Amino acid sequence: MKITGVKELEAKLKKNATLDDARTVVKKNGADLQSRMTRNAVFVKGYSTGATKRSIRSAFTDSNLTVTVEPTTSYASYPEYGTRYMAAQPFVRPSFNIQKEIFKRELKKLMK
Q1: If you count DSSP H runs as helices and E runs as strands, how many of each does the chain have, helices first?
Q2: Which DSSP string do the residues of 29-57 spell out, in sequence order?
Q3: CA distance 31 to 101
Q4: Taking residues 73-98, what's their average pLDDT?
Q5: pLDDT, average across residues 103-109
Q6: Is the confidence at residue 112, as pLDDT, over 90?
Q7: How many Cα neighbours within 13 Å face the side chain of 75?
Q8: Please, which residues have CB within 8 angstroms of residue 77's CB and are 6 or more apart in sequence?
Q9: Which long-range contacts (C-beta less than 8 Å, at least 24 apart) are formed by 59-66?
Q10: Which residues lie below 8 Å from residue 52, measured CB to CB, with a gap of 6+?
Q11: How many Å apart are CA 105 and CA 17, to the nearest integer?
């Protein structure tokens, strides 16, 4: 996801809220995305050991204004997109799409 207008957001946040409020929103939404992704990483087809589910981690950068949530197994894309031998069982994209809307809504609240 790419967010444009960061300068405007910073200016508006300085006027209405602090960057600590933005960090709180990022931290909360990162944790929620990790939980949602972990809940959705239940694979019913094929051989499943739970390694992909356990590998989902979040990492904060840019003074806690950026969070990266991702599975760290090398084969996590196989259940997400499928292969010629197995159907896709997406767990990253559906989780992200839901959390993205919640994140946008909470940032808009900060800017009012």
Answers
A1: 5, 2
A2: HHHHHHHHHHHH----SS---SHHHHTEE
A3: 15
A4: 93
A5: 91
A6: no
A7: 11
A8: none
A9: 60/26, 60/27, 60/30, 63/19, 63/23, 64/23, 64/26, 64/27, 65/19, 65/22, 65/23, 65/26, 66/26
A10: 41, 43, 71, 73, 75, 76, 79
A11: 15
Percent of the chain with pLDDT over 90: 58
Which amino acid is located at 8 in the chain?
A: E
Res 17 pLDDT > 70: no
Residue 29 burial (CB count, 10 A): 20
DSSP category for residue 62? T
Q: What is the pLDDT of residue 18?
A: 74
Using the predicted structure, report yes or no on whether residue 107 has a pLDDT greater than 80.
yes
Which regions of the chain does DSSP assign to beta strands (E)? 56-61, 66-71
pLDDT digits (tens, 9 = 90+) for 82-94: 999 888 999 999 9
